[in-house]
Amino acid sequence: MKQVKPFLIAVALSVTASAFAQQAAPKPETVIKWRQSVYQVLAWNSSRIKANVDGQFNREEVVRAANSTAAIANSGLGALYAPGTEQGKGWHDTSAKPEIFKDGKKVGDLAGNFVREANELAKIAVNGDQAAVKAQFGKLGQTCKACHDDYKVKD
Amino acid sequence: MKQVKPFLIAVALSVTASAFAQQAAPKPETVIKWRQSVYQVLAWNSSRIKANVDGQFNREEVVRAANSTAAIANSGLGALYAPGTEQGKGWHDTSAKPEIFKDGKKVGDLAGNFVREANELAKIAVNGDQAAVKAQFGKLGQTCKACHDDYKVKD
Question: Please, which pLDDT band fits residue A8 given cuts at 50, 70 and 90?
Fold first, then answer.
């Protein structure tokens, strides 16, 4: 599968907006639901990778979960923060702070870090040993946390 | 990213069960929530691909969405139908019919079809023209429908 370069995520929103213009745009609640679902799938993948780096290491499962994470990271998540989705209820009220819709440059940098570390984990998962995967999984987790710290409402 | 061969999905469930054994197993409601989220992310990807094959064609967006779909398809979704998740509430009551937990061979075949067509779409998205992508997107959709017809409770 072809990987999309990090810098392309910056244009994801406008590209998607133009594609959606061809058909009825999805409702904000639908977009928020998709957004919340993305993070649940990432949580599932993280849960599986964590089980493998802390316990018995099954490379096939780690590769599958890491590939899913990387492909999602590269899939243009910026589109899920489209105008009109600042507030609203998907599965539940959005946990996104208003600032994530305003801090374009900083959010782009954090998103780029996430994409880079996710791609690196997918690479290391293929050949790296358990310790190498664990170290890279930790780096990826830091990029998740960096964004959550600033832009996710605390539970 | 390395693609996992379709036949490997057959062993996904047992592999994952063993990995989860190393740490506290996730609650059934959590697994159902992940399962429901996976299909929402697939729906988002489908929505984007549909917009592109019916309107203005942006290859980068199609590649991103198709790669995400393929990676998720290859990620071992069988684990999300673990024993204990036959009934219960994730984001909402499960829409999975009881038969999906029993018809192992048939479900495996349908899942294999889904993985195969998703991988093919990811391949065609890289070089194929809009018509070719649209045709393959249609084939993929048929594999979704085949499973929904038999194993998803109607809304």
Answer: very low
Mutation for A interface: B27, B64, B137, most A CBs within 10 A: B64
Torsion of CA A82, A86, A87, A90, to 10 degrees: 40
Question: Across the interface, do B44 and A36 touch by the CB < 8 Å criterion?
Answer: no
Task: Give the per-residue pLDDT at B39.
Answer: 98
Contact assignment for B72 to A41 by CB distance below 8 Å = yes
Residues of A in contact with B19 (CB under 8 A): 48, 51-52, 55-56, 58, 61
Q: Which of B51, B55, B71 sits opposite A1 (nearest CB)?
A: B71
Residue B27 token pair? 């609650």
**pLDDT tens-place string over residues B45-57:** 999 999 999 999 9
CATH of B26-83+91-151, picked from 1.20.1250.20, 1.20.120.10, 3.30.70.2760, 1.10.10.10, is 1.20.120.10
Residue B76, token pair as written in the block: 């071992």
Note the pLDDT tens digit of each residue in A88-116.
Answer: 999 999 999 999 999 999 999 999 999 99
Q: Which of A4, A61, A140, A21 is nearest to B65 (CA)?
A: A4
Pairwise CB contact (< 8 Å): B26 & A18: no
So what's the pLDDT on residue B20? 47
ipTM entry: 0.86
What are the residue ranges of helices labelled H in chain B?
Answer: 9-20, 28-54, 59-73, 104-127, 130-151
Boundaries of every domain in chain A: 26-83+91-151
